[in-house]
Design a protein that fits this description.
This protein is of the alpha+beta class and 700 residues long. Among the domains are: 313 residues, Rossmann fold (3-Layer(aba) Sandwich), CATH 3.40.50.1820; 82 residues, no CATH class. Helix content is 18%, strand content 32%. It is built from twelve helices and 39 strands. The strands form nine sheets. Strands 32-33-35-34-36-37-38-39 form an eight-stranded mixed sheet, sandwiched between helices. β1 and β2 form a beta hairpin. α2 packs across α12.
């Protein structure tokens, strides 16, 4: 191999770790782009089978280990703190589904949950359904995908990924009333984690497969116990669209949902398989919709003539193919309100539950079949999250939902849909924590163009907000993801040490409606970074954090966010944590053979042509890494990650090291047996988070 190594980076001679940071070899490569030819000496890292690349990653891990070695005591202390705040042996609240009550349990010392069911609520642990620890034994990585009971609850489809590549193996477990169980000989490989559906009689199982670009695109039908080959039910040929499958809560319909970033198309078939798969409404560019079954009606949530969505309904027999052709068939249930984003609607026999975002806060609202006035779940003004919990029963006059905030652990309520009578079922235990020690609030930052951006803040009551506290700013800002505040026992460790944590809600997310998303995507993407930079400056200006003591953190598309902000304003941040960061965006989005590229063009643009060639080149972190005094960086990657390939953070770190003019550490840790989400076992995940927190404590 011909190597033309770069000069040593400024920081390589200034550490006392006993191990120098790796110096990545240069190999000549030129990208031909619409904006002109671009040299990329680290393009060779795209080949994850290259022995030199694997050795380079091993060298990065050796340097990461050396960097963290002096902080081993801190990491162990943080790990023990996290563990001490978790009730390790714990159990969920039993959920009734059919004739059974289902429950999951964690046990001290075990990394994964156990799943049970029983004939009554008090006997919910009578039958062990699945022990994830047993299935994970011998594997460095384990993720449970499907766990889906047949309609009569005599069989379960369950799937697992033991590589981190999001290719699951599906099995079918059969149960007898006496609790005995066995996995059938049926084994289905290369299943995507995109839902499952059972036929009404339990003889057929529907599942989804992904193509070579990791796009879920085919629906298959498997005959349980049969020796015949599985049947292809539907194939999505448009590379922009991906497919998911599920069942309505009524158990009467199987739903196949095909969607791109901007359009959707739903097909349905009766679960008794008495009719073929039918299209509810043919796809049209820019029109998105979802469908649920509500007794004698189909309910559709759509953005047609409603940028923030509206809800309409039609009789079942008239619902197919009429939404555009015969709009008079459809009656409006919930009108469009600009800025008031309807996220989804779930149907129960006598009511609908509407999940929506208004004023950058999520809420749940009930709409009744009998025409009674609708009403919302009341949760107060503190920045919070709220989501429906598991509610499998079609006939129910209560709903279960979970709410949380940055000062409130996930709390499960059961509420009567009519009377609003509420019962607290469970709050996730937090031993050794006084929740009254923490305060959260919202402030509004001003972005570069004058737009106000919400920022949620949490801190210890003893932390003075006088411009002296260190802080961590977290952001995502893509895919219309509305990032509600969440509770973290790990975060408490830095709050107890005087840090302030702030959650930014930049454009590109969906917290303030669909327009908030549209204003932060494609050729407007720079606004996302401007918003977060504005949030950082605001936190400093109002004295929430100290100048020079602010860290920035994000992952995946949030890794692109922190990479762009770091590249554009390196002096603003003391340190940066970029988890599986999407930082080589121009090269990745120029290659349609890479996983998910084609489906992502509607989010980011296609940089092979203008205007996106120039737009994306202007903010791409990797392409804009130039000599500067960069802050400390901790980046993570997964060798088997199918979403953000390991070469992206590896290339970025290599380039940063070659040009950084500061002595701040640049550290890359690669999970050699995991994918996009990092370690899966809870103890490994806690230790992984302890390492990240130790980095923040050492560098901020």
């Amino acid at each position: 191999m011909s190597i033309d190594p770069p000069p040593p980076p400024a920081s390589s001679h200034s550490n006392d770790l006993g191990v120098d940071p790796p110096t990545a070899p240069h190999r000549e490569h030129v990208w031909t782009r619409a904006t002109g030819d671009v040299d990329d000496p680290f393009a060779w890292m795209r080949d994850t089978t290259d022995a030199d690349f694997l050795e380079y990653l091993a060298a990065e891990n050796r340097f990461s280990d050396a960097f963290f070695a002096p902080h081993a005591t801190t990491i162990e202390t943080l790990f023990e703190e996290i563990k001490s705040r978790v009730q390790e042996t714990d159990m969920t609240v039993p959920v009734k589904n059919g004739d059974w009550w289902y429950v999951a349990q964690t046990v001290e010392g075990l990394s994964y949950p156990l799943h049970f069911r029983g004939p009554t609520r008090d006997e919910a642990t009578a039958m062990l359904l699945l022990d994830e620890n047993e299935e994970a034994d011998g594997h460095a990585y384990f993720d449970l995908g499907a766990f889906d009971a047949s309609h009569d609850h005599t069989a379960f489809a369950w799937s697992s990924d033991t590589e981190g590549n999001e290719r699951y193996r599906m099995r079918i477990r059969r149960f007898r009333d006496d609790g005995a169980s066995t996995d059938l000989d049926d084994v289905i490989d290369d299943v995507a984690n995109a839902g499952t559906a059972w036929s009404a009689d339990g003889t057929s199982l529907f599942y989804v497969r992904a193509d070579d670009q990791e796009r879920p695109y085919q629906v298959w039908r498997h005959e349980v116990g049969a020796s015949t080959a599985d049947q292809l039910v539907y194939e999505e040929r448009d590379e922009r669209f991906y497919v998911a499958i599920g069942e309505t809560r009524s158990d009467e319909w199987i739903v196949v949902h095909a969607a791109s970033k901007t359009s959707s198309e739903v097909r349905m078939l009766p679960s008794d398989l008495s009719a073929p798969l039918r299209v509810v409404e043919a796809r049209r560019d820019g029109i998105e919709y979802q469908v649920d079954h509500w007794g004698d009606r189909m309910v559709v949530t759509t953005n047609e003539d409603a940028v923030d969505f509206r809800v309409v309904a039609a009789p079942v027999e008239q619902a197919f193919g009429t939404l555009a052709a015969e709009p008079s068939v459809w009656s409006e249930l919930i009108p469009h309100v600009p800025g008031h984003r309807i996220v989804g609607v779930e149907a129960f026999a006598e009511h609908l539950v509407v999940h929506e975002w208004a004023a950058a806060q999520p809420r749940l609202r009930m709409l009744f079949r009998d025409g009674s006035p609708d009403r919302s779940v009341e949760l107060g003004a503190e920045p919070h999250d709220v989501e429906l919990s598991v509610n499998p029963e079609w006939h129910s006059d209560t709903i279960r939902y979970v709410t949380a905030s940055m000062t409130l652990p996930p709390t499960l309520y059961e509420e009567h849909v009519v009377t609003a009578a509420r019962e607290l079922l469970r709050q996730v235990p937090t031993p050794n924590v006084d929740l009254d020690d923490y305060r959260s609030s919202r402030t509004w930052a001003t972005s570069d163009d004058g737009t106000l951006v919400p920022v949620d803040i949490v801190h210890h009551v003893d932390t003075a907000l006088d411009g002296t506290a260190p802080g961590v700013l977290y952001g995502y800002g893509a895919y219309e993801a509305s990032l509600a505040p969440w509770f973290s026992v790990a975060r408490l460790s830095i709050l107890d040490r005087g840090f302030v944590f702030a959650l930014a809600h930049p454009r590109g997310g969906g917290e303030l409606g669909r327009q908030w998303y549209l204003d932060g995507k494609l050729d407007h993407k720079q606004r996302t970074f401007d918003d977060v930079i504005g949030c950082a400056e605001h936190l400093i200006d109002i004295g929430v954090v100290a100048s020079g003591r602010l860290a920035l953190r994000g992952g995946s598309a949030g890794g692109l966010l922190v990479g762009a902000c770091m590249t554009q304003r390196p002096e603003l941040f003391a340190s940066v944590v970029a988890e599986v960061p999407f930082v080589d965006i121009v090269a990745t989005m120029s290659d349609p053979t890479l996983p998910l590229t084609v489906t992502e063009w509607e989010e980011w643009g296609d940089p092979r042509t203008e205007p996106y060639a120039s737009v994306m080149a202007a903010y791409s972190p990797y392409d804009n890494t130039a000599p500067a005094a960069y802050p400390a960086l901790y980046a993570t990657a997964g060798l088997n990650d199918p979403r953000v390939s390991v070469h992206e953070p590896a290339k970025w770190v290599a380039k940063l090291r070659s040009v950084s003019t500061s002595d701040a550490p640049i550290v890359l840790h690669v999970e050699m047996g995991a994918g996009h989400g990092g370690p899966t076992g809870r103890y490994d995940a806690w230790r992984d988070e302890a390492r990240t927190l130790a980095f923040l404590l050492a560098t901020t």
